[in-house]
Amino acid sequence: MLRAQLYFPPLTGSTWESLEPSSLNWCPNKIDSLFQFLEEQNTKAFIVLKDGKIVLEQYFNDHAVNTPWYWASAGKTLTAFLVGMAQQEGLLNIQNPSSDYLGAGWTSCSPEEEEAITVWHQLTMTTGLNDGVGDLSCTDPTCLEFLAEPGTRWSYHNGPYTLLDNVISNASGLTLNQFINQKLKNPTGMTGSFIGVDNNVVYFSNARSMARFGLLMLNNGNWSGNQIMTDSDYFNSMISTSQELNRAYGYLWWLNSTTNFMVPGVQAQIPGMLMPNAPVDMIAALGKNGQFLNVVPSESLVLIRMGEEPTGSLVPFLLNDKIWEYMNALSCAELNLTQNTLDEIRVFPNPSSDFIQVQGLESGGTIQIYDALGREIQRFTAQSDEVTLSLKEHDSGIYILKISNSVGTNFITKRIVLK
Residue 366: pLDDT above 90? Predict the structure, then answer.
């Protein structure tokens, strides 16, 4: 479902419409506190889009609007998008063995073991190749050893991922930069290039180009009426749980809507949301040193951050979560609905099989239900402080409830599970 009333900047030039933070009831002093925190964390660039328009844009530490910076592993999401573009054009099939595009002997596995690894396994970090080798970014066959059957083990392993670049170029007959230029950059006005750095292939661009990609993702692969990603099945799979080992991982995208997650280097599921302060339906591109691209369909927001980060974490989700803690505090108004605070609103039963009740919402307040892909599927206006919603027509799964006050200045989101 395309999003109504989204703004898209022109493909060329520096024009980009803005929105005053005051229109969102964001306080200047709280914005200052956010910017101070970002500067303390060695941030280079920070942009927030609302409905496609720039509501916050700030540069730090001699960075400027056109200064290029690396995406690190946030660029994995570009690769995921390009694989989808190649598949929709019939150049590859993600269910095919990776050796169809990389040639036999791209690993040190036996022929049978290698043939079992598909492009899908590369997209989902489930190749089963040994992540205990010295250099996780090494793509030489000697570094790519069999450890487990493909699809039975999730590990954040850069080597097999990086070889997706060769899958794309070999399948298309174009270099990776030629392919992204044709399929993504030219239709959206993005700038930047993939550059080889040691064993990695890293994307470099300015911050606004990352924001453009986020806006494209917000609009389900459609740029101002041009449906770039026409394979909706692939797009939806890309931003949904791809396997049961790490439910917070799609096709190289991180998901915030799950009840447990895994992190690089740890073979255990961690209970809870990946980023509790962030919106439930957020999908995220996360890269080393805090390269973040966050897309929030229910709020029509895109948030990007580029820069350095003190810990050197491969996926610094804690920093991203802290940024959202500051974002949640931007409102000038107290979070209240007449006599009741938003936190006092009750939603039950949860999980549910056929209905839910919302108690404590003022008359005129709004309840919106979104599916796991961020598509609004129902909307209600409260006539009293107790509302009963029928869910019988919906499939089992996770849904997001957005509850707003009568004037729309404050809201909360709650995750509901339909059995």
Answer: no
Alpha carbon distance 160, 254 (integer Å):
18
Give the contacts of 193 (CB within 8 A, at least 6 positions apart). Answer: 177, 203, 204, 205
Give me the sign of the Cα torsion angle 127, 118, 250, 167: positive
Kindly state the tokens that stand for 391.
Answer: 């869910």
Q: What is the mean pLDDT of residues 362-375?
A: 74
Return the closest-CA partner of residue 125 out of 278, 235, 298, 261. Answer: 261
Please say whether the beta carbons of 125 and 161 come within 8 A.
yes
Taken as a whole, the chain contains a residue count of 419
pLDDT in tens, 299-353: 999 999 999 987 777 788 899 999 999 999 998 854 444 434 556 788 878 878 7
Burial class of residue 115, CB neighbours in 10 A (0-12, 13-18, 19+)? middle
Closest listed residue to residue 43, CA positions, set 408, 371, 307: 307
pTM of the entire predicted model:
0.83
Q: Is the dihedral of CA 196, 77, 81, 210 positive or negative?
A: negative
CB contact set of 12 (below 8 Å; sequence gap of 6+) = 189
Q: How far apart are CA 126 and CA 74, in angstroms?
A: 18
The string of pLDDT tens digits covering residues 262-280 is 888 888 888 888 998 999 9
Write the single-letter amino acid at 347: V
